[in-house]
Amino acid sequence: MSMGLLAFARWLQQVCLCFWIGGPVVIGAIVAPMAFRHAGLTPEQAGNVVGPSLARLNGLLYATGALLLLAQLAEMRLDLGQTSLARRLRWVRFVCAAAMFGIVLWLGLAVMPRLLGDRAAGRMGDFRIFHQQYGGWTQAQTLLALSVAALTAWLSALPHLTPLRRVEAGPAGSPREGALKDG
């Protein structure tokens, strides 16, 4: 049963990382350029498209960030055959994931309301400052997500402590004769 849960935790991490990497890329590389440059919208109209898109993305990242952290904790608990290097790398990966989750929470719950308030009040100087900071922190969050993905890939290639060993031979000709087993 624990192997099934371990496989599920690893799969869930990969799905969550798809949103963490793909979401900001789609908004930054497709939605925002289309809204601001190619759709013929005024800056205010384009902002009315991109702003709600970011808000929805943030909501999705809150959910998938929590799931990602829980899946990483489950993997650390369930993978009993990990080497000390794998254990350390999993903690580094967890800290990176927690940092990116903290960034998105701060951006969505503190910076975004300030951005929207400055824009609505016509304080465009303050809006531009916070908008640049938002963009920079989003890039940092995306780099952390890429780091988490790279660590995940690297961890999947590391050997386990429990090597395969021979199981006692059963009766001659039985399927267990000379079989290999984990740990």
Write the layout of secondary structure elements.
Elements: H1 2-38, H2 43-78, H3 84-120, H4 124-157, E1 164-166, E2 180-182
Antiparallel strand pairs: 1-2
Helix pairs in contact: 1-2, 1-4, 2-3, 3-4
Description:
By secondary structure, this protein is mainly α. The chain has helices at 2-38, 43-78, 84-120, 124-157; strands spanning 164-166, 180-182. It has four helices and two strands, in the order ααααββ. α2 (43-78) runs antiparallel to α3 (84-120). Mean pLDDT is 86; it is low at 163-167.
Features:
183 residues; mainly alpha; 2 strands; 3% strand
Describe this structure in a few short sentences.
Helix content is 79%, strand content 3%. The protein has helices at 2-38, 43-78, 84-120, 124-157, and strands spanning 164-166, 180-182.
